[in-house]
Amino acid sequence: MKFILQEKFNGKSIESVLIECHVPKKELHWLRMSKDIKVNNEVRKLTDTVVTGDRVDLPDFNHKSNYKESGQQAKIVFEDDNLLVAQKSAGQKVHPNDPGEHNTLVNDVISSTISPYVEPVHRLDVDTSGIVLFAKNAYMKKILDYMLAKNEIERIYKAHVKLGSKINKQTVNAPLGRKPHTNLYHVTREGKTAITHIIEVKKLKHYEELTVELETGRTHQIRAHLKHLNAPIIGDKLYGGPTSPYMHLYGYQVSFTNPLSGEKVNVTMVED
């Protein structure tokens, strides 16, 4: 992992910087033993102090992901040294479920970046199109996993429902669980906490467009919550949505502050 030290970390040790960024103890212990930490191309220790503008280069403890290249180019809409955002089409899985699958978004991304390590930070349903955040090294994966769990990564979706659905801006706080013997999720007292914010409703010519923010990330969360509101997504066959050749649900935007650089990352889906 490589990064330029931002001003707020000036005068702190490399270890303190990584602790503030929530790198776990296991990885810190590994780095204490390492002789490959470099600052401005000079070998340093984890306990050494760094200053604003220093270029820190940490050896990777997990060099390579176990995905095979698909030979196809992914649509990468943002990339820096430690992370990237790629866009997937409806019908494509984010990652393989068995060793024989090589046509997922992850396989395309591995074919499209020089990083041998690529891991998704969150998921999209196979029938959902849109953008997915990836870590390009194992340190950043740990950092982004922590941020996602703490709701420090904002995920915005667009969903289309039929006209006259009577959906207003609201927060849906309704636990979701899987219906026995089905692939459906529904609101149930025995379910896991699920919170969906409908932050904007636009009435367009052929449908109503909802802008939705996830606070939790349960399986089928938006789809199940909109079904609960009697407004299933257009094209969502599983939840009884109006007929369409594809499902009108899109992973539209990902926003967060990069804890290493302090920069705001705000990436929006590229419209075809």
Mean pLDDT: 94
Rounded to the nearest angstrom, the distance between the terminal CA atoms is 33 Å
From the spread of the alpha carbons, the general shape counts as elongated
| The CATH topology of the largest domain | Pseudouridine synthase
Number of helical runs?
5
What composes the largest sheet? 10 strands, mixed
The CATH superfamily of the largest domain turns out to be Pseudouridine synthase
Helix content: 10-25%
CATH architecture of the largest domain: 2-Layer Sandwich
Q: What are the segments in which pLDDT stays under 50 over at least 5 consecutive residues?
A: none
Instruction: Bin the strand percentage.
Output: 25-35%
Roughly how many Å is the radius of gyration? 21 Å
Q: Order of helices and strands, N to C?
A: EHHEEEEEHEEHEEEEEEHEE
What number of domains?
3
Q: Structural class, please?
A: alpha+beta
- The CATH class of the largest domain, by name, is Alpha Beta
Q: How many beta-strand segments?
A: 16
